[in-house]
Amino acid sequence: MRITQHPILTFDRGKEIHFTFNGRPMKGYEGETIAAALHAAGVKVLAKSLEKHRPRGFYCAIGHCASCQMIVDGEPNVRTCITLLREGMTVETQEGKGRIK
Ligand code: FES
User: Fold this and answer.
1) Which residue's CA is the nearest one to ligand 1's atom 1?
2) Pairing with 58, which of 3, 49, 50, 100 sits 20 to 30 Å away (CA)?
């Protein structure tokens, strides 16, 4: 869900950006973060806790908590709440601490 109307704010959408999430084609808009685009598409679970593998989603949304870490273009531990979408990027759910290639 995206906010489209607000009494005092305007939302200028950038161009459409295409990316994949766990192999599924997805779309967002230029200027959005990965986590925001996933959230708008109904994806609420971004990561799992390290020990008990409990679902994690948006928490701080400012890059301070690591609740949204995912694998982006093969790089683990990317905080998707502060990483902007780029055309063609691949985003994957991360299990555990992530492996550095
Ligand atoms: S939600 Fe806290 S770092 Fe992304």
Assistant:
1) 61
2) 100
